[in-house]
Amino acid sequence: MSEPRAGRNAVRPGISLGSIGGVPVVLAWSWFAITGLIVVLFGPTIRESFPRIGAASYAVALGYALLLAVSVLVHELAHALTARAFGWPLPRIVLTLWGGPTQFASFNSSPGRSLLVALAGPAANFGIAGLGWLLLQLLTPGSISSTLVFVMVWANLLLAVFNALPGLPLDGGRLVESLVWRATGSQDRGTVAAGWAGRIIVILLLGGVVGVPLVQGRGPDVVLIVLAVVMGAFLWMGATAAIENARMRLRLPAISAGRLQQPAVGLPADTTVQTARRLLREHPGAAIVLTGSTGRPEAVVDEGALLAVPEDATPSTPVRATARRLAAGAYVPEHAEGQELVQFLARLEGSEYAVVSKQGTVTGLLHQRTVVQAITGRNAP
Q1: What is the DSSP letter of 300?
Q2: What is the rounded distance in angstroms from the CA atom of residue 119 to the CA atom of residue 141?
Q3: Three-state DSSP class for 355?
Q4: What angle do CA 213, 219, 221 make, to 5 degrees?
């Protein structure tokens, strides 16, 4: 999963735990909330099984949460190390108890490699479950340690099977993505399909937790409902994010400065208001971009201010007096398009950019809100 470039004031995703095998690991803030929920929900269950330990049952529940975190970490490291074996850029792991999205920088992949990286995680959990089963043979049945290991074995089996379900953001979603990718030649179309499959899984999950007990004539388990809602919300948000990001990438090829620009004409900054008004009448709907002595765009004429100049003052008033300045270097090539255009604009200040031809002639004015609307498909505020 590609990670968007963080802004200067971006909120940190969690606490840095350093790196393992060269892979940076971050403990997400949500980990603490989910861990607290696990301790509160499973502490009483442990106490019923081991009444002699009293309040220490909550410490045992915390131990289970920590073992689950280690299992998730191994799962995500399997993703990261497999990806690195294919020469993908160094990833970052953001660790939660429901999963730890391994975030990759931009890279070129293939359906087969993407699927192998995805399946490495569930394979690691099956391996942990196998090792736990072997360890159980050495422990005293019914002891606290054997109970923790037993729960860990089942947790890893469930984590592996659950992650193999065919819908994003689960690992099995990469299977759907890879199949559609191979059939259509578009990874992003595969991502959209896998995201919708993830949404369907959430609906089936919640329907099963509530509906199956009702069909069997008994009430739903409140604890299971709470866990299903929390997990379902996490999965739904992940699926939605995957769909929206893929749709944005699908729109990128159709985005270019030349197609999105407002028509504009260039004028030297020392031109008079009288000349600018005449040019405006000759080019209705066009913006007027002022250029400096070097020919580079410097400002945009404010049409309201231009028309507000008294008629008798237009021959002597420089048009620069009615203009708003562009940010330094705020001009883009007419041929810039797709990812190149987005990256170019990300380096510029301001919300307006002059568009220039290969010969350096002003041909248009590009508004930031127009680009945002074209990428997101939504009206920019």
Answers
A1: E
A2: 33
A3: strand
A4: 80
b/e string for 332-353 if b means 16 or more Cβ within 10 A?
A: bbbebbeebbbeebeebeebbb
- Give the type of residue at 208: G
pLDDT at site 38: 82
292: closest CA among 268, 319, 326, 323? 268
**Chain center to CA of 314:** 52
How many residues are given for the chain?
A: 381
Render pLDDT for 114-160 as a digit per residue (tens, 0 to 9): 889 889 999 999 999 999 999 999 988 888 888 888 988 998 998 89
For residue range 36-84, what is the model confidence (pLDDT) as tens digits?
Answer: 888 888 888 888 888 888 888 899 889 888 888 888 889 989 988 888 8
Pairing relation of β-strands 92-95 and 23-28? Answer: parallel
Q: Residues 131, 134, 140, 141: is their CA dihedral positive or negative?
A: positive
Structure tokens given for 8:
């200067």
Rg (CA), the chain: 29
Structure tokens that stand for 202 in this block: 């959430």
Is the pTM higher than 0.85? The answer reads no
One-letter amino acid for residue 336 of the chain: A
Amino acid at 73: L
The per-residue DSSP string of 190-257 comes to: HHHHHHHHHHHHHHHHHHHHHHHHHHTTSPPPHHHHHHHHHHHHHHHHHHHHHHHHHHHHHHGGG-BH
Residue 317: CB partners within 8 Å, gap ≥ 6? Answer: 272, 273, 309
**What secondary structure does DSSP assign to 123-140, as a single string?**
HHHHHHHHHHHHHHTTSP
DSSP state of 291: E
- Distance from C-alpha of 31 to C-alpha of 191, rounded to nearest angstrom: 27
For tokens 């041909």, name the residue: 363
316, two tokens: 């002597």
Between the CA of residue 126 and those of 66, 226, 235, 246, what are the distances in Å? 18, 26, 22, 31
Which domains does the chain possess?
Answer: 14-251 (no CATH), 257-376 (3.10.580.10)
